[in-house]
Amino acid sequence: MEKNNPIVYAVSDSIGETAESVVKATISQFIEQNFEVVRVPYVKDKEQIDRLVQEAAEHNAVICYTLVSPELREHLADRALAHDIQVVDVLGPMLKAIEKTTGLLPQNQAGLMHSLDHEYFKRVEAVEFAVKYDDGKNPLGLLKADVVLIGVSRTSKTPLSMYLAHKKIKVANVPLVPELNPPAELFKVPPYKIIGLLIDPFKLNEIRATRLKTMGLSEDSGYADVARIEEELNYAKGIMRRVHCQIINVSNRAIEETAGIIMEYVRKNKERHHE
After folding, report:
1. Distance in angstroms (rounded) separating the CA atoms of residues 96 and 99
2. Closest to 161 (Cα-Cα) out of 180, 177, 141, 179
3. How far apart are CA 143 and CA 63, in angstroms?
4. Which of 12, 104, 157, 177 fits 16 for a cystine, CB–CB 3.0-4.6 Å?
5. What's the rounded Cα separation, in Å, for the pair 258 and 177?
6. What is the pLDDT of residues 43-94, one digit of tens each?
7. What's the burial of 117, exposed, middle or buried (CB within 10 Å: 0-12/13-18/19+)?
8. Which secondary-structure segment (H or E) carries 246?
9. Rounded Cα gap, residues 3 and 36, in angstroms
10. Cα–Cα distance measured from residue 114 to residue 15, given in angstroms and rounded to the nearest whole number
11. What beta strand segments (E) does 44-91 contain?
C-alpha cells in the first residue's frame, strides 16, 4: 500500500462487490487524490472484525461494509467507535427502513446479495468485452469469446454483440472483407462457437444505401453496389465453409429474433460440451 494514500476497506460477509462498488463510486468524486481500496470478503466472526478494526486504526482508514448479520454489524460499529474509526453501514439503514415500513423481517442470510452482484457484474463484464473486441479490433478476444460473429458490413454484428452482452454472453465479431484476410485466431476457434451472418444482397443494398444517405455520402458508392455486395457475400460464404460454422440469415429478422436463435444455440452447445 502507498503510505500517503488514504485507505478504504470494503467489508462483506459475502463476496464484497457491492461494498467495493459503493467505495469506488464515492472516491471517484475526489479526483485530486489516489485511494487504496481493500476488499475484505467473507467476514464470518467477531475475531475477523477485531483484526480488521485494529489494522484500520493503524492506517487511519475508513470502513464501508455490507454485513447482513445484525450481530456482526453491531460489533463492527462498536469496535470502530472505540477506535475512533469512520464507518459506513451500506445495508443496515435500508434493512431497518424496509422492516419498519412493511413489517417484514429480513432473512439476515449472507450470500443472498452475492447472486445479484454476480449477475450484474457478469453483464458489465460481457458489455466491456463486446466493446473491446468489436469489429475485429483485437483478434486475441476471439479465443476468449463465448460466441464469435462473422459477416460482411451491416449484418448487425455490433448490435447483436451488445444485445447478447446484456444477456451475459461474451461476444467478439469480425468483419469479412475480400481484400483482408481474417485473423489467424479465427481458425483456432472451435466451430461451434462461430456464427456466420448472411443477408439477401438486395436487402443489404437497401441498408447500405440508407447508411450512406444518413452519412451525407453518395449512394452510388461501391459500398452499396449490388455486384460488390454479391462479391463480399460469396467471399464470406467461403470463409464460413472453411470454419464450418452455424449460419443465420438475418435478412428479415429483428435483432431480438436473431439473438434468440443464438442464445438457444449457445445453451445447447454448453450442454453438449459441458462448459
Report:
1. 5
2. 141
3. 40
4. 12
5. 22
6. 999 999 999 999 999 999 999 998 888 899 899 999 999 999 999 998 888 8
7. buried
8. strand 246-249
9. 10
10. 6
11. 62-66, 87-89
- 64 phi/psi in degrees, rounded to 5: -110, 130
Q: Assess contact for 171 and 129: CB atoms under 8 A.
A: yes
Measured between alpha carbons, how far is 47 from 53 in angstroms, rounded to an integer?
10
Calpha distance 5→1 (Å, rounded): 8
Q: Which residue has the cell 448490435?
A: 159
Q: Based on C-alpha coordinates, what's the Rg of the chain? A: 26
Q: Are 245 and 196 in contact (CB under 8 A)?
A: yes
pLDDT value for 32: 86
Counting every residue, how long is the chain?
275
Across 119-133, 165-179, 195-209, least confident range: 119-133
Whole-model pTM? 0.61
**If you write DSSP's letter for every residue of 79-98 in order, what string do you get?**
HHHHTT--EEESSHHHHHHH
Cα angle: 113, vertex 44, 78; to 5 degrees: 100
Q: Rounded to whole angstroms, how far apart are CA atoms 212 and 223?
A: 8
Q: How far is the C-alpha of 135 from the C-alpha of 148, rounded, in Å?
A: 11
Residue 202 has which C-alpha cell? Answer: 438486395
